[in-house]
Specification:
two-stranded antiparallel ribbon, mainly alpha, 2% strand
């Protein structure tokens, strides 16, 4: 069932001072974006642009400072600015965008209802980036015409379609034809600091569209009413209570077989049948079992949805509690499978992220169980899961998963602990600066090991790359400075090469 949702949108104000203040802020942010992140250097430049963007939003929309929800979103956005200065990551950038989007939108909403609706609002807000500047320009020109505005309005509107089409089609042809791309790259005016290319112009347009969407976040996209699916499905086909009880009995029996096998072979350490290795048993089932738990959670939400004939009933609820408990144990077994596989081979950032995801699934199942016990609403369940997810993601922004991975691999390998696989030096180098401390730890602990020379060579290459990045303020990061200080302290005689170049 689709439920209509309306966000209050006050009438647009097209006062001269308001519009031109926003236009000035926009031009300033475009210029700053070109001077900072336009170079492709990710670090202090990104944080500086984010801070200026937040200040510009507050300047043109002071109402955000009087709204508690918007202030909270501002706080998260400033935390992500610090994270971008500390150690930039796509996750920090994504959370920053969500936070600044909420800060722009919340003052227009009557209240914060539930996270599911706000995910839809943020999605609509993001899509509006493509049309919002054009729509606002059209509306402004119409207002100016009604006020006997400047004659260039008609000319500007006349040129919008041909110019926009020319830019779009030229860009498409350039991406498809290397000859045209070479011609366009050769279109430059000026030199050095005033050098102008089509790529740079495209970058200005992107910054302008994205920033303007937050400065003028009066509504998302037309129409004003945005429809989003709700988690309650009262129109779904009814399933009898007897059918659900039989289903839960069968499902519990099937899950019990899997969980008993995990207890015997995974948790107790009993020998596996011939032809099956522990690595195979541990690795093959981790991800399918997580999918199984997710499907089980969806089934529970469906049969116990508000208004369903199966919502009540003691025996049914008891079977549901048993099944949720089995699912949580299943997730725990999946985590143990992954840990066993990591111990046999090594830890990677992807495997560490998988463990975090499994923990989130277990938390979600626990929240589903509590929702049933405490008779909470669907909105409560969505908001609780969103809070757990947000807390986890923000924590991951400030914790270097690469450093955790490198430290674990250095301390759990055949050389250090006598168990596990051989230290994968190539993967440590792939982790980049986040592996520097772990590499130094390995060198100190095993000065005469054959692998130490490989580790030292990789560490020097990483240090050179990091030193080159830190030498440019735009790619400077606080965490990078600390890592470089550690590298200097470990090898006082080392100095970066003069011609080193920063890597990605």
């Amino acid at each position: 069932m689709m439920q209509a949702m309306t966000l209050s949108a006050p009438a647009l104000s097209w006062s001269r001072s308001s519009f031109f203040l926003k236009l000035c802020v926009l031009l300033a942010l475009v210029a700053l974006g070109d001077a900072t992140i336009g170079s492709g250097k990710i670090g202090a430049a990104t944080a500086a642009f984010g801070a200026a963007w937040l200040f510009g939003l507050w300047l043109v929309r002071p109402a955000t400072a009087a709204h508690l929800g918007a202030l909270t979103a501002f706080g998260f956005a400033w935390a992500m600015v610090f994270a971008l200065l500390e150690d930039p990551s796509p996750l920090a950038g994504l959370i920053f965008w969500c936070a600044i989007g909420l800060a722009a939108l919340l003052p227009r909403a009557a209240r914060f209802d539930d996270a599911w609706r706000w995910i839809g609002r943020l999605a609509a807000f993001t899509l509006s980036i493509l049309v919002k500047p054009i729509e606002d320009g059209e509306r402004w020109f119409k207002v100016r015409r009604r006020r006997r505005g400047l004659p260039f309005a008609k000319v500007a509107l006349f040129l919008v379609a041909p110019l926009a089409g020319a830019v779009v089609f030229t860009g498409l042809f350039a991406s498809a034809n290397p000859i045209i791309a070479r011609w366009i790259e050769g279109l430059r005016w000026g030199g050095d600091a005033t050098d102008l290319s089509m790529r740079r112009v495209w970058w200005w347009i992107v910054i302008a569209f994205v920033v303007w969407s937050t400065l003028r976040a009066s509504r998302f996209i037309r129409p004003r009413t945005v429809r989003l699916p709700t988690i309650a499905l009262p129109g779904a086909p009814a399933i009898s209570t007897a059918s659900v009880i039989v289903s839960l009995v069968v499902f519990n029996a099937i899950f019990a077989i899997e969980n008993v096998l995990d207890v015997v072979f995974l948790w107790s350490g009993a020998p596996l049948p011939d032809g099956v290795t522990l690595a195979d048993y541990a690795h093959s089932g981790a991800y399918p079992l997580i999918l199984t738990a997710l499907l089980a959670g969806g089934f529970v939400l469906f049969v116990l949805r508000p208004g369903a004939p199966t919502e009540g009933g003691g025996p049914l609820r008891a079977l549901v509690y048993v099944w949720i408990a089995q699912n949580i144990f299943l997730v725990a077994s999946s985590m143990l499978r992954t840990v066993d596989y990591i111990e046999a081979y090594s830890l990677t950032r992807l495997r560490l992220a998988a463990l975090i995801w499994m923990a989130l699934v277990a938390a979600g199942l626990g929240l589903i169980c509590w929702r049933i016990i405490a008779n909470k609403s669907s909105a409560w369940l969505i908001n609780a899961n969103a809070a757990v997810l947000a807390t986890t993601l923000v924590s991951c922004v400030f914790v270097s998963l690469g450093s955790v991975t490198a430290q674990w691999n250095v301390r759990h390998n055949a050389t250090t602990s006598g168990s596990g696989g051989v230290l994968d030096v190539a993967y440590l180098e792939y982790l980049g600066p986040s592996a520097l401390n772990a590499m130094l730890e390995f060198e100190r602990a095993h000065p005469s090991d054959p692998l130490t020379e490989q580790v030292a060579s990789a560490r020097l290459r990483i240090s050179e790359t990091l030193a080159a990045a830190q030498s440019d303020w735009r790619s400077w990061t606080w965490r990078g400075a600390r890592r470089l200080a550690v590298a200097h302290a470990a090898d006082p005689g080392w100095s970066p090469a003069a011609d080193g170049e920063a890597g990605d």
